[in-house]
Design a protein that fits this description.
Elements lengths: L13 H15 L3 H14 L4 H13 L3 H14 L4 H13 L3 H14 L4 H14 L3 H14 L5 H16 L1
Length: 170
């Protein structure tokens, strides 16, 4: 997964900024219904603010309102087609819905725009490993994630070793 977007785009009015800041605090407290109550009216007035829409989508995801989340993420991408958090969360929704090729394509779009995205590499590696059964793809993205994370993730190190072992046996 990916943390919520932390900043809004420049030049927003103080009321919008306050609502955004309040929503970020509520997200950290896992008060998802309150996030929706806070952000939905602001998002309706400001569909051009992708960071706000991503945070609204994250709240919807936690409330199991996937259609609302997808709509908010699509709206964010309409303004910023390369928004990393929007692409990552939309790919997660596609994967959860069983649309693995669509998810892969979104992760590839994310990594084309943001090649240093650790979450993008990790999530694409997991998709390739567990859902698409594409060991080469999984290894490539797990290794790139480890490089970007400075090798600090013991779980991923284990996954890499396991994939390499399976490839040698296969």
């Amino acid at each position: 997964a990916n943390p919520a977007a932390q900043t809004t785009e420049p030049a927003v009015d103080p009321g919008t900024q306050r609502a955004f800041d309040q929503a970020v605090a509520l997200l950290k407290q896992q008060q998802y219904a309150q996030v929706v109550d806070t952000l939905a009216p602001v998002a309706a007035k400001h569909p051009e603010l992708p960071g706000l829409l991503v945070n609204l989508a994250v709240a919807y995801i936690h409330l199991e309102r996937q259609e609302h989340a997808a709509a908010a993420l699509q709206q964010a991408l309409a303004t910023d087609p390369e928004h990393p958090a929007a692409l990552n969360w939309l790919a997660i929704l596609e994967r959860r819905a069983g649309r693995f090729e669509e998810a892969k394509s979104l992760y590839q779009r994310l990594l084309a725009a943001h090649p240093e995205s650790r979450h993008g590499h990790l999530n694409l590696g997991i998709l390739c490993d567990l859902y698409l059964r594409q060991a080469d793809c999984a290894l490539e993205h797990y290794r790139r994630y480890q490089e970007l994370a400075a090798g600090e993730d013991a779980d991923v190190s284990g996954w890499i070793a396991d994939l390499e072992r399976r490839r040698q046996q296969g």
